[in-house]
Every structure is written in structure tokens, then in C-alpha cells.
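Schema walk-through. Below, the input block comes first and the output block second. Nothing else is stored per chain. Lengths vary across the set, and this one has 97 residues.
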Amino acid sequence: MHKSAEHVASELATLGVQGEVRELAEPAPTAAAAAAQLGCEVGAIANSLLFSADGDPHTALESYAVVWAGAGHVHTVFPTTFAELLRITGGTPAEVS
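--- output ---
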């Protein structure tokens, strides 16, 4: 595993994240590429739904049971949930319309 992905895996473990870092066979520089390799919808890829509202980042991932987030390298991701992603990032849910 790439050194930066090992660092992410270590930090995730420290935060009590249950999902393990997964190494993809091909690079996933886009949400579409990651979704194709994981067999999920593009919307379940965390970086595909980040919005800026009044200069603050917001995400809209709550409708997916599993959300996939980048893990420090274009070949690595980890599964999480909307609630866990909020917890580990200190994010705040907000209505986006």
C-alpha cells in the first residue's frame, strides 16, 4: 500500500473507523472511475458531492448506506457512512436545494 494510504489507514483506526482502506486495481482520479471499480453509483463517492455554500464546504451523501472516500492515494478508498464521515471530519449537515 502507498505510504500516504498507510498514514490515512492509521488515522482512520485512531478515529475508530470500521471500514478498511481498499486498494483499487486501477487509479481512480475521478468519482466516475472510482464508482466503476467499486460497482456503485457515482453519488456514493464522497468527493463527487461536495458543494460550496457561502464559502463553506457541504456534502450531500446521506441517501447512501455506504459512502466511499479517498484514502490518500488515487488507488485507495475506504467505506464509511454519512454519519461517520460527519464525525471524523467535524462536518455539519445542511439542507441544499
